[in-house]
Design brief:
The chain is of the alpha/beta class. It is 45% helix and 19% strand. The strands form two sheets. A six-stranded mixed beta sheet has the order 2-1-3-10-4-11, with helices on both faces. A five-stranded mixed beta sheet has the order 7-6-8-5-9, sandwiched between helices. α2 crosses α12 and α7 packs across α14. The longest helix is centred in the first third of the chain and has 23 residues. The radius of gyration is 23 Å and the shape is globular.
């Protein structure tokens, strides 16, 4: 056998060994831009996107770069690119904005291809000042029924507002008309909501375990001290969180602020719960083979198990649903929340 032939056969053998990796990534561009619906590099959206982008890059042998451009710009970028060089990651705000009628918000189920789910932030919460007379959500609803004006700081049109809507819905169920006493204080990001509390502009604020737990550990006479009164996550999601919890608040204590220990009725039979879920979206004209390559890669990544620990270490709950299952799940959430929102709007 000649040297040339040996070299040729060796090259063919090497190609066959690497073929599965190449085949898996052959439909993908070399560089993929993952735009996210946040402009912050310090928030939970960026954290989750970074974990997934690193895993996809390593698994597929491509460069997935996270670009925090904000929701409006992210949707525009995704709509412009059908080649698959741009994909988007965001959370439930993607469809909630449209339900709340935020101008310029797309119907993601009609205008884009909803992809697999990635993870859950179990930390969506509502807090009061440490010296607040409201010890529980029952106190908040009772105050509204008694005619007190309860001011709730939210960022309109998304995850912040859906819990506020649930409060108003529960108040209406308990005492029709009392929902008018639960009023929004429209703010910006978490820092703005915190400041609204500290400036005595809000009685309750939307927050998160990750962002606000530190303030719940301060002495009660500290003007910035807060208390949790409601965590919206399902107990199933919270029970998957690390037992040690976050900071000085362990999982057992977190569960005391969530359903069924805290009751915020959505219907006569069911409490309102909300898991803030992260998921991918694609341009609807993107090659289906490319989308399938990413969905398959995620299936394989989650089967390996390493990514789960990365999410748990950052206090997120890993939750991969294949694309078809994710579409059905998120559409169902959309429909449930649309009912609550439309009923309150119709009053």
């Amino acid at each position: 056998m000649s040297v040339t032939r040996r070299l040729l056969l060796s090259a063919v053998g090497a190609a066959l060994v690497t073929m599965p990796v190449v085949a898996e990534a052959q439909n993908l561009p070399r560089n993929v831009r993952m735009v996210i619906g946040s402009s912050s590099t310090g928030g939970d959206t960026y954290q989750n996107a970074s974990i997934l982008a690193d895993a996809l890059s390593e698994h597929l042998g491509v460069n997935v770069r996270v670009d925090p451009v904000g929701a409006s710009e992210a949707f525009k970028a995704l709509a412009r690119d059908s080649r698959g060089t741009t994909i988007m990651m965001h959370h439930d705000q993607s469809y909630l904005q449209e339900l709340y009628g935020v101008e310029g918000s797309p119907d993601i189920f009609e205008e884009f291809t909803v992809g697999p789910t990635i993870s859950v932030n179990p930390g969506n919460a509502y807090l009061v000042p440490a010296d607040s007379p409201y010890q529980t959500m029952e106190d908040v609803l009772a105050a509204a029924e008694a005619g007190e004006r309860v001011r709730v700081a939210i960022q309109p049109g998304g995850v912040s507002e859906i819990g506020f809507t649930a409060m108003r819905n529960a108040a209406r169920m308990q005492a029709p008309g009392s929902e008018e006493n639960i009023v929004p204080v429209n703010t910006g990001d978490q820092a703005d909501k915190n400041q609204a509390m500290w400036d005595d502009l809000a009685d309750v604020i939307n927050g998160s375990i990750q962002a606000n737990e530190q303030f719940t550990q301060l002495p009660e006479d500290d003007p910035t001290a807060m208390r949790f009164i409601w965590i919206t996550a399902t107990p199933e999601t919270l029970n998957q969180a690390p037992e040690e919890g976050l900071g000085e608040t362990d999982r057992a204590e977190m569960l005391t602020y969530a359903a069924p220990e805290v009751s915020v009725p959505m219907t006569a039979e069911e409490n309102f719960t909300f898991d803030k879920e992260f998921f991918l979206m694609f341009n609807p004209e993107t090659d289906p083979a490319l989308i399938e390559a990413i969905d398959t890669a995620m299936d394989e990544i989650y089967a390996e198990g390493e990514i789960q620990q990365r999410f748990l270490d950052a206090f997120f709950t890993p939750e991969y649903r294949p694309m078809a299952e994710a579409q059905e799940h998120l559409q169902s959430k959309n429909d449930d929340y649309e009912t609550i929102i439309s009923e309150l709007k119709s009053e």
